[in-house]
Design brief:
2 domains; five-stranded mixed β-sheet; globular; eight-stranded mixed β-sheet; binds D-MYO-inositol-1-phosphate; D-Maltodextrin-Binding Protein, domain 2; Fructose-1,6-Bisphosphatase, Chain A, domain 1; binds calcium ion; alpha+beta
Length: about 260
């Protein structure tokens, strides 16, 4: 199945790459920051057509067209273009993210970094790979020497779940904090050992599904901010190399800092 998932991500990626830097229709969704382009929609349509052809009975949960569930034990969770704001502004960091669940458990995850032409792939129990090369999370156990990554939801102005306080706490206590603008790639770079941890609030299932498996299969750990088990519908994500996880939980505990 993983080869099929990679094929679907590649097909969507080709459409996105061809349109990058050209003229395309951009629309606002919930507010000024929340965009969708005609390229997001075209990429999603391509992936859905692929699934319909190859696996006609499988369910689909896709960002732009919603849920098409049925009785199948399989569910494809699709973000056709993760990093739409970057894409719309001509900044080349964005990805296609596709996870496949069987009876609610993610069994395949693929993130395609379109402009770098890098495929991140994981199958449950078989490790994580970038263009076929095995990935390992970092071995750093010193929070102060960590490089972290985060992102902000489109309703950040309302400060959901104390996002600003948590961001400041991290900035003050670690080596560096980055913000790429693609949650799927944030997970990938934790899996690859570049970032020691990634945290964010209010992500969606299609931002999380593939990336969570990629981190876990590279030896990392993904929980909520209390260390509790999460699924793809969780509103808090903390993904780390495992070694700094408990210190990250302490750092993200904003109520103690008031
Ligand atoms: C967004 C990106 C971004 C994250 C947002 C997501 P989209 O996805 O992953 O990094 O901070 O919360 O919604 O809208 O570009 O698919
Ligand atoms: Ca997304
Ligand atoms: Ca998207």
């Amino acid at each position: 199945m993983i080869d099929k998932v990679i094929k679907a991500a590649n097909e969507a990626g080709e459409i996105i790459r061809e349109s990058f830097g050209k003229n395309f229709l951009v629309e606002q969704k919930t507010n000024l920051s929340d965009l969708v382009t005609e390229v997001d929609k075209k990429a999603e349509e391509t992936i859905i057509n692929f699934i319909r052809k190859e696996f006609p009975t499988h369910g689909i949960l896709a960002e732009e067209s919603g849920s098409q569930k049925n009785t199948s034990e399989y569910l494809w969770v699709v973000d056709p273009l993760d990093g739409t704001t970057n894409f719309a502004h001509g900044f080349p960091i964005f990805a296609v993210s596709i996870g496949v669940q069987k009876n609610g458990e993610t069994v395949c995850g693929v993130v395609y970094d379109v402009m770098r032409d890098e495929i991140y792939s994981a199958e449950k129990g078989s490790g994580s790979f970038r263009n076929g090369q095995k990935l390992k999370v970092s071995t750093n156990d010193d929070l102060r020497k960590s490089m972290l990554v985060t992102g902000f939801p489109y309703n950040i102005a309302e400060n959901p779940d104390n996002a600003f306080e948590r961001f400041i706490a991290c900035l003050k206590n670690v080596r560096a904090v980055r913000r790429l603008g693609s949650a799927a790639l944030d997970f990938c770079y934790v899996a690859a050992g570049a970032f020691d941890a990634f945290w964010e609030v209010y992500l969606h299932p299609w931002d999380i599904c593939a990336g969570k498996l990629l981190v876990e299969e590279a030896g990392g750990f993904v929980t909520n901010f209390e260390g509790g088990t999460i699924d793809i519908y969780s509103k808090q994500i903390l993904a780390s190399n495992n070694k700094i996880h408990s210190n990250m939980i302490k750092l993200l505990r904003v109520d103690h800092k008031k």
